[in-house]
Design a protein that fits this description.
The structure holds two protein chains of two kinds.
Chain A (H helix, E strand, L loop, with lengths): L2 H31 L5 H29 L6 H14 L3 H32 L6 E6 L2 E6 L8 E4 L9 E3 L3 E5 L1 H4 L5 E4 L3 E2 L4 E2 L4 E5 L7 H12 L5 H32 L4 H16 L4 H20 L2 E3 L2 H8 L1 E7 H5 L5 E7 L4 H12 L5 H13 L8 E7 L3 E6 L2 E6 L1 H6 L12 E7 L2 E9 L6 H10 L4 E5 L4 H8 L6 E3 L4 H14 L3 E6 L5 H6 L2 E5 L5 H6 L2 E3 L6 H36 L4 H24 L4
Parallel strand pairs in A: 11-18, 11-20, 18-19, 20-21, 21-22
Antiparallel strand pairs in A: 1-2, 1-3, 3-9, 4-7, 4-9, 5-6, 5-8, 10-22, 12-17, 13-14, 14-15, 15-16, 16-17
Helix pairs in contact in A: 1-2, 1-4, 2-3, 2-4, 3-4, 3-8, 4-9, 4-21, 7-8, 7-9, 8-20, 8-21, 9-20, 9-21, 10-20, 12-13, 20-21
Chain B lengths: L1 E7 L4 H12 L4 E7 L4 E6 L4 H15 L4 E3 L2
Antiparallel strand pairs in B: 1-3, 1-4, 2-3
Helix pairs in contact in B: 1-2
The chains are: A alpha+beta, B alpha+beta.
Chain lengths: ~625, ~70
């Protein structure tokens, strides 16, 4: 509890004691002093003591509010309501309203403080100091002074402060804070170690890879913190609603106090008193606090909870969009599949295998495409010396392949379309996987088949998504149809689009958006699919922590290539949305009922303040559920 | 110029919304967002008028919630 809350609690307790004392001594005091003073004065004096005791902070803020021209300030309205209660002769009620209002405020303050802290704890994966090793000396320094290339050591149980490359022989790391994965990760020399994970093995040495501001942890924190800025539609609705709610309720209260007595008995003070009292119940519930606090709290909790599962959501609005998602479109390579291709079959044509690989690899060696990488790997494996070929120029033709002018002539490596484009005659043998064709100076010299495998957990993830209510799953791929069908066999995928160019993917996502009822999410690995990520209602990128382009273009990032965390994200988004809707309906419903019963004179001030504070407390507690869920 | 400032004693969610409204209207501010939960003010503003904008933002904040303070640094 903060000091301010403690002070409020003490005031409340003292006030309760004084209130009981006032109520108990009321008849005696009146009898004793009745001769000297009018009984009304004595009663007012008795109840004014606990009232001022608990209400002082409220009265002070109300006064400051009036000075600053804030007439629809909740403190001011509460002050009017309680002074009105005094004026209509309801002294105990005036104290009770102020007392209960303060209890509610105190509770809210504690609850908000608690959620603020637990959200901070969720993101407390930052380490401020690092053990810098220079020669044989180890000194503890602030993280921001460590430069890339320097060596740091991390002892057992410590958090890795900066991204680095492992120098020690091996390490056991707990990455739960980053990925939600509970199994420790085993690393060997040369592996990249993300900051934020905990060293569970012995002392390790790391070579620092990036400076502090660019570390995984700093980025995650920044994203989660900034996410509060992108407010959801529901939040904006609530803010707008709050703007009009208070003034309208106050105007209704005024009308309620004036109009009915004018009609029914303008000269009857009893009638006036009754209607003014009813109007006061309006003022008591004129604060939209329950909604204004609980809705953003729910979203923030949802975002915090998601980050704990290894999912970064860039804003409350995206959490909402995700909850309304009906179709999930997956890019095949790198998302559903591992994306590390390996060469499966090599069929040379009028040339030997070694030469075929050597030439193909020479042309592809600078490409970042996964197929090119697997080719290089294979070439190194069989000892094909592709580097001996001198490259004059290379040209990447998107969706086709590569054309390279070399010391050995013009090498063309790519799919059927590339062969057709250059009118190269070729013979296609029946091969599985992605098939690339190779030609030298326009003559076909052979084909190489390369294939990919599904990631662990892909099948389960797709099934879980269906169970979570995602209507349709779609797979997009640049590969041929046979390969697409081969990979998707046995998966819960409704639609396959094969043979796609990068721009075709955008078109397909657009057309699904037009047809579909709900939102369309696109999941890609962030390489080459930034336009598709932007085109979809929700762009989700895989393991994008390393790739700036992916973070920029996507709305949700699944850390470290974990496709299964997508289910957690969908589940959390739905839960958050459910809680938000519950809170809005509940709070508005209770307020409407209390307003109605108050206007009819069925509910008094006590019940109104009780309902108002109760709603706020329940709504806040409900919102805090968003934080807690880790797995269903 | 975009900057984030921490806020102290921001205790009323409705006030946060009011502050955001008021600060957005200050001349030279192109964007303002007050987050009640993270107690942060995100401000996009004209650097040339920084001093004046800060002063007015602090004033607007004090006006709506007397105890609340923006920590400019």
């Amino acid at each position: 509890m903060r000091r301010k809350d403690k002070r409020a609690l003490i005031l409340i307790i003292i006030s309760i004691v004084l209130f009981i004392a006032a109520a108990a001594s009321r008849p005696y005091a009146v009898r004793l002093l009745g001769g000297a003073l009018p009984p009304v004065f004595i009663e007012i004096a008795l109840f004014l003591v606990p009232y001022l005791c608990v209400g002082f902070p409220v009265l002070r803020r109300a006064l400051l509010g009036i000075i600053h021209g804030q007439i629809f300030d909740e403190n001011f309205l509460m002050t009017i309501a309680t002074i009105g209660a005094f004026a209509t002769g309801e002294y105990p009620e005036a104290v009770f309203v102020m007392l209960f209002y303060s209890v509610g405020e105190l509770f809210q303050s504690i609850a908000v403080g608690k959620s603020r802290r637990s959200i901070k704890a969720l993101t407390s994966i930052r380490e401020d100091v690092a053990n810098l090793k220079v020669g044989d000396d180890v000194t503890t320094v602030g993280c921001e002074v460590v430069k890339a290339g320097q060596t740091i050591i991390v002892r057992t149980g410590e958090r890795v402060p900066l991204d680095g490359v492992l120098l020690s022989a091996g390490a056991t790391l707990n990455t739960a804070a980053l990925t939600g994965e509970s199994l420790p990760r085993e690393c060997v020399t040369g592996d990249e170690i993300p900051s934020g994970c905990i060293n569970e093995g012995g002392l390790i040495e790391l070579e620092v890879k990036s400076e502090y501001n660019e570390t995984t942890v700093a980025r995650i924190l920044k994203m989660v913190e900034d996410s509060a800025e992108r407010k959801s539609k529901s939040e904006e609705f609530i803010t707008k609603f709050a703007k009009y709610y208070t003034p309208s309720v106050v105007i209704f209260a005024l009308l309620l106090a004036i109009l009915p007595p004018m009609i029914t008995g303008i000269s009857d003070s009893g009638v006036w008193r009754e209607w003014v009292y009813r109007a006061l119940t309006f003022l008591v519930i004129s604060c939209p606090c329950a909604l204004v606090i609980s809705v953003p709290l729910a979203y923030f909790g949802g975002i915090g909870g998601a980050s704990r599962c290894g999912v970064l959501v860039k804003g409350a609005s995206f959490l909402d969009e995700l909850a309304k998602c009906d179709t999930v479109v997956f890019d095949k390579t790198g998302t559903l599949t591992k994306g590390n291709f390996s060469v499966r079959e090599v069929i040379p044509h009028n040339c030997d295998e070694h030469t075929l690989i050597k030439l193909a690899c020479a042309a592809e060696q600078f490409s970042t495409h996964p197929i090119a990488k697997s080719l290089v790997l294979y070439a190194n494996g069989i000892g094909a010396d592709y580097k001996s070929i001198e490259i004059i120029s290379t040209e990447d033709i998107a969706g086709h392949g590569v054309v390279a002018d070399t010391s050995r002539g013009r090498i063309t490596v790519g799919n059927e379309r590339l062969m057709d484009k250059f009118s190269i005659e070729y013979t296609a043998a029946e091969l599985h996987g992605s098939v690339i064709f190779v030609a030298l100076d326009g003559n076909f010299i052979g084909q190489i088949s390369i294939s990919d495998t599904l990631k662990d957990g892909t099948a389960d993830t797709l099934l879980s998504l269906k169970r979570l209510g995602i209507g349709k799953t779609v797979m997009l791929t640049g590969d041929n149809k046979a390969e697409a069908e081969y990979i998707s066999d046995g998966l819960a995928i409704d639609e396959i689009h094969a043979n796609l160019m990068p721009w075709d993917k955008v078109e397909i996502v657009e057309s699904i958006k037009k047809k579909g009822l709900g939102n369309v999410a696109f999941v890609g690995d962030g390489i080459n699919d930034a336009p598709v990520l932007m085109a979809a209602d929700i762009g989700i990128s895989m393991g994008g922590i390393g790739s700036d382009a992916a973070i920029e273009a996507s709305d949700v990032v699944l850390m470290y290539d974990k496709l299964s965390s997508l289910c957690d994200a969908v589940r959390l988004s739905k839960k958050t949305r459910r809680i938000v809707i519950q809170n809005i309906i509940f709070a508005l419903g209770v307020k409407a009922i209390v307003l109605l019963l108050g206007a009819l004179g069925i509910l008094g001030l006590n019940a109104a303040v009780f309902a108002d504070v109760g709603v706020a407390v329940i709504a806040i507690l409900n919102s805090m559920r968003c934080l807690g869920s880790r797995h269903s | 110029m975009k900057k984030v400032f921490m806020m102290e004693n921001l205790d009323c969610a409705n006030c946060a919304a009011k502050m955001q409204d008021a600060i957005s209207k200050i001349e030279g501010v192109s964007y303002a967002s007050v987050s009640f939960i993270s107690q942060r003010l995100t401000l996009e503003y004209d650097e040339a008028r920084e001093a004046k904008i800060f002063k007015e933002a602090a004033k607007a904040c004090k006006k709506i919630e007397p105890d609340c303070r923006i920590i400019f640094k």
